[in-house]
């Protein structure tokens, strides 16, 4: 780990994502949240590690699986929860829901559920930053499924050609809905190797190791900021719950229980605690205080969301 002082914040970001999403899952059956939710439980380290390498003024683009990226970039727990409840106090004024979060004040430029669609928007944003002489870096999150879309290749090609300050961050959780890699891509071909064909610097890493993610992202962000151009990072991880919704779906048979259990053992939070408590890099007391603070935050956010009013009419999404 290149920056041990960052460890507590990495833990805090991961735990916040985990606990917020677990609360969403607990409350979902009340049917007060009327939007679909794509939970990233199990994948928290990619969002936390990558976003921690960014400045507040840097920009992030996200996908249908948006909560981790939003919270990682410093989005408000209250505003996200209220958005999922469809309330006027939500970060998208209650008109977006889980898949359309936005918070310009923290550089979270938006999430969209059309797979691959935010990639060219992020690249265009980076192009704009260069044209205006702004030192901003743009990080675009997407799943490995999005790399199967033409727009991904067009975007990477353009970013390489114009040496744009973009970090392409691919969260490879092995599945696109119920389809494993084996029915989508030739055996033995790594996702990053396809990106490499565009002449972009590529790295593959352990997506459940938050310190490893942070180190890879930090290098890529620094290079982008210094005018060195884009980087593609492929981070291997695994979603624990169903593709869409609060439940577990191992009974469906599209993946094996053995595979799930293997990845369950690679829990990013447990791995962090095991490693850094043992080494003395973080103190148990400090982690407990973080956990207590997050419990209070989550309870407060749910109460805030539930007690907030619904929007009067659908307005203000595109023009604040
Ligand atoms: C253009 C487009 N095609 C198909 C879908 C349906 N869809 C929604 S999420 C998803 C899976 C995407 O997989 P991946 O990019 O790996 O992200 P993950 O869900 O694994 O995080 C698909 C196919 C969509 N939303 N948009
Ligand atoms: Mg996937």
Account of the 3D structure:
This protein is α/β, with parallel strands linked by helices. It has one domain: Rossmann fold, CATH 3.40.50.970. The chain has helices spanning 7-27, 44-51, 67-72, 77-84, 118-131, 150-161, 191-196, 210-225, 257-264, 268-279, 284-307, and strands at residues 59-62, 108-111, 138-143, 166-172, 175-176, 179-180, 201-206, 231-236. The strands form two sheets. Strands 2-1-3-4-8-7 form a six-stranded parallel sheet, with helices on both faces. Helix 1 (7-27) crosses helix 2. The N and C termini lie far apart (41 Å). The structure holds thiamine diphosphate and magnesium ion (MG). Thiamine diphosphate (TPP) binds next to strand 3 and strand 5.
Key terms for this structure?
alpha/beta, 320 residues, Rossmann fold, globular, binds thiamine diphosphate, binds magnesium ion, 42% helix
Topology:
Elements: H1 7-27, H2 44-51, E1 59-62, H3 67-72, H4 77-84, E2 108-111, H5 118-131, E3 138-143, H6 150-161, E4 166-172, E5 175-176, E6 179-180, H7 191-196, E7 201-206, H8 210-225, E8 231-236, H9 257-264, H10 268-279, H11 284-307
Parallel strand pairs: 1-2, 1-3, 3-4, 4-8, 7-8
Antiparallel strand pairs: 5-6
Helix pairs in contact: 1-2, 1-10, 1-11, 2-8, 4-11, 5-6
